[in-house]
Amino acid sequence: MQRNGSRGSTATRIRVAGGVLLVAHLALVAWIALRPLDVPWVSPANLHPFAGIRADLALGPGIATRRIGKGLALLAPLGVLLPMTAGRLDVSRLGSLTRTTAAGALISLGIELLQTGVPGQVADVDALMLNTAGVALAHMAIVPAARAFLRRRAESRHPAPLPLEESPEGRTPTFPRVGIAP
């Protein structure tokens, strides 16, 4: 069903802006994560969960913060951009978080799988976990508050109609249903 009025055009503008920003962000991520690196040696793929994070923590808090923060931040904008492209305001918080996190995990998995064919890049299960956690954290931090703000804004511009009992014109007449002939 298509919405009429300014609410429909606002939703369309949000969807279009979200789509454009999503494509731009994914292009940037692809450039960062999938460009070949000229390195003298390549470490093996990390397929043991939390092994890379433990190694980063062993190097000290400064290096660990930088590396873990980089892993969280790489795909974090997807936590906001994916719901933005849907443009829906009235959805379940848990359902939205689940869909967004699952999509972020699949995108991160795709990047990690593509990295296996790029010289100098290796797959890392910790990067997959950190990227997915970044998507979920960004979604939880921004999307519910933004949707609540947009709902309040839309309701203030277009107040809900009065119920039939309180309508100044009185109750709307109802007619009995007519069955369909055999």
Q: SSE layout and pairings?
A:
Layout: H1 6-34, H2 51-58, H3 61-74, H4 78-86, H5 93-115, H6 125-157
Helix pairs in contact: 1-4, 2-3, 3-6, 4-5, 4-6, 5-6
Helix percent reads 55-70%
What is the ordering of alpha helices and beta strands?
HHHHHH
Return the structural class.
mainly alpha
The biggest sheet amounts to: none
Q: What general outline do the C-alpha atoms trace?
A: elongated
> Given the structure, what is the number of helices?
6
Instruction: Give the overall average pLDDT.
Output: 87
What low-confidence regions span 5 or more consecutive residues with pLDDT below 50?
1-5
Total strands: the figure is: 0
Radius of gyration using CA atoms only: 24 Å
N-end to C-end Cα span: 31 Å
Strand content: under 5%
Architecture overview:
Helix content is about 65%, strand content about 0%. It is mainly alpha-helical. The chain has helices spanning about 5-35, 50-60, 60-75, 80-85, 95-115, 125-155. It starts with 5 loop residues before the first helix and ends in a 25-residue tail after the last helix. The model is unreliable at about 1-5 (pLDDT under 50). α2 (about 50-60) runs antiparallel to α3, α3 crosses α6 (about 125-155) and α5 packs antiparallel against α6. It is built from six helices and no strands.
State the gist of this model.
The chain is built from 6 helices and no strands.
List key phrases describing it.
182 residues; mainly alpha; 6 helices; 64% helix
